[in-house]
Amino acid sequence: MEVDVPKSQDLGKIMAGIQAQYDEMAENNREELDKYWCRQTEESTTVFTMQSTEIGAAERMLRELRCTVQSLDIDLDSMRYLKATLENSLREVDADGGAQQDPAAPGVRADPNPGREAPGPRARGPVEHQGRAGG
Q: What's residue 68's pLDDT?
């Protein structure tokens, strides 16, 4: 009995062909993966650099704003002190009921001691000096 066997293909050649395809695909995948990771690394580095720059700018702005707030707090305290001083001066003037108004100049008080020399300039406190010096 004879069996008709078709020509057998060389299994070694088939296996070698499959191995070559596999190796080529594996190499292509490695190259694509390397490119992908390089792109990801570059993008991450770029984002990190930009965000670091932005953080630095924000920190500088925050320091400047803190200085501005501190300066404004000092100015506010100076203004409060000046207001209190002016209110006290106004109370003293209002409490000085003995002062007469000059009929020729309404709204201007006459000097209660006309024979006495006018007092010299009053010494200013440190806050008044600061306010006049542009602070």
A: 97
Residue with tokens 């984002």: 47
Strands (E), 78-124: none
85 neighbors 78 (Cβ within 8 angstroms): no
Please answer whether residues 112 and 102 qualify as being in contact, where contact means their C-beta atoms are separated by less than 8 angstroms. Answer: no
**CA distances from residue 129 to 33, 82, 121, 132 in whole angstroms, order as listed:** 71, 11, 14, 5
For residue 41, give the amino acid letter. T
> Tokens 């190796």 sit at which residue?
23
- For residue 91 the two structure tokens come to 């109370």
pLDDT at 104 over 80: no
Three-class secondary structure of residue 116 per DSSP: coil
Question: According to the model, what pLDDT value does residue 96 have?
Answer: 85
